[in-house]
Amino acid sequence: MPVNIRDLLILSHIPGIGSNRLRALVNHFGDPHEVGRASAHQLIRVEGIERKTALAVVSFLRGPAAGAAERFANDQISRIDKLGGRIVSFWDPDYPSNLKRIYDPPPFLFVRGEFREADGSSIAIVGTRNPTPYGTGLGERFASDLARLGLTVVSGLARGIDTTAHAAVLRSHGRTIAVIGSGVDVIYPAENKPLAERIVEQGAVVSEYEMGAKPDAVNFPRRNRIISGMTLGTLVVETGLEGGAMITATIALDQNREVFAIPSAITERRVSGTNRLIKEGKALLTESVADILGELGPRIKALLKDRAAASPEPPQDLTLFERRLFDVMDENPAHIDLLAGRAGLSASETLVHLLSLEFKGIVRQLPGKMFLRN
After folding, report:
1. Which run of H or of E encompasses 22?
2. Quick one: 214 exposed, middle or buried, by C-beta within 10 A (0-12, 13-18, 19+)?
3. Total domains, the chain
4. What is the model's pTM?
5. Cβ neighbours of 272 (radius 10 Å)
6. Each residue of 140-185: pLDDT tens digit?
7. 59 & 193 share domain
8. 100 within domain boundaries
9. Fewer Cβ within 10 Å of end Cβ, the chain: N or C?
10. How many CB atoms lie within 10 A of CB 191?
11. Euclidean distance between CA atoms 200 and 143, whole angstroms
C-alpha cells in the first residue's frame, strides 16, 4: 500500500519517533495522514507507543512545530525531485524485499536510480579503505564475476574495496547499488561523484538520510545494516580487526544472512580481519564465486536458470568440440571435470577446448578450474 510521502516525512520529524515507531504507527493506522488525526488515547494502542510519546505526537502535530515539519517535508521532496530521484517508502511495492525482513528497516529511502525485482538476488562486497594490491585484484574479480552472473552487487561507495567493487561491476555492464551515509546529494568521498553518477545509470544510489545530510561518522554503522540487509550475503575482502567491514559482517550475522570472507596473507596484519572471521567460524572461507553460489544456490537458482535460458546463440566459427562444450555450459560456474563428463570428453581435451573458447572471449575461467559462459 503506497503511502503519502509528505505525511510520512512530517511524522519522521517528530522528536522521539524513530524508524520502528514510525513503521508501527503507519502499520496500525494504515496511512500516515490518519496518524495525524488520531487522539492520544488511540495512539497508545499502538505497540511501542506509551502515553508520554502519544501526548508528544498529538502536541507536535497540533502545535506550531507542525508547520516547520511540513516545510521540511516539502523541501525534501523538492530537492530529491530536482535530482531526478524519489523517496521509496517501506510500503511501496519496489522497496527492497530483503531489507523488509531485517529488524529495523528504514521507513523510507532516498533513491537516485531504480530498484528492480532482480535486486533480490544481490551480494554485498565490503572491505578496507586501504587495500593491498592482492585485495584490490580479488575485489575486482569477484565483483565482475558476480555481475556477469546477473547478481546485483551492493556496497558503500567508500574508498578502497567499495569503490573497486562498484567500478568493476560497471565495467562488466552489471547492476550495482551504493548505500551511502549522507544525503544522496552529498557524495562522499567527493572524488567518487563521477562514479556515483554512473551507478545511478546502472543501478541506484541510496540513503536513509535526508537531503543535505553530511557524512558524519555516526551515520556509517547504521548505513551498514542497509548494505547487509539488502543482500543475501556479504563478502568481506580485506579488513582490519576493527574496520567498518567487520561491523557489516557482524550485522549480517545478526540479520541471519550469509557471510563470506577471502583469506588474507598472514603477514598482512592490518587486513587480518577476514582471517579472524574465518577462524572464528563467522564466515565461509571463499576462494571463488563458486563457493558463494554453493551456499546460496537454492535462493538464486531461478535467476541463474533465467539467464542461462536467455543466453545468445554460439558464434558460428566454433569447432565441433567447442560447440559441444558451449552447449553444456551456462552462466553458473562448473568444474572442468563436470564439463568433461557432460560433453563426453577427456579432462585434457576439455581443457584444450575451454582455453580456446576463453581466448575467443566466449567463456571465462575462475579459480579452482571453474568455467562459465561470458
Report:
1. helix 19-29
2. exposed
3. 3
4. 0.82
5. 19
6. 999 998 998 889 999 999 999 999 999 999 998 899 999 999 999 9
7. no
8. no
9. N
10. 10
11. 17
